[in-house]
Fold:
Amino acid sequence: YDIEYRENDYWHDNLLKVKPCTYKYNNHNETRYGFIAEDILELYPEIVMFDEDGKCDAIQYDLFIPILVSEVQRLNKEIDRQNLEISNLKSELSSMKSTIESILETINIQ
Structure:
């Protein structure tokens, strides 16, 4: 195998451009959910299949899964970072409240 690990930014930047849609095949009345192969071709050409005439034909949705997993991982890291920042800010706020209370007590004593 020739394995290439992509940075989350590659997946993320393109994933934000993906446009989910609903569609119906011309000879069916059933609504489908997915993406337009031509749109995906511009973002992730490696997951698009072509017909014998060389036109975009379909998306290999199973190959889209690693892209989605990568984005979930990126979002999870961002949530962890934000939770840590919130915790630090709460601690800082608590410390500031204590300091203010001490100052107010000192002022009231005098």
Remarks:
- Strands lie at 21-23, 32-34, 48-50, 56-59.
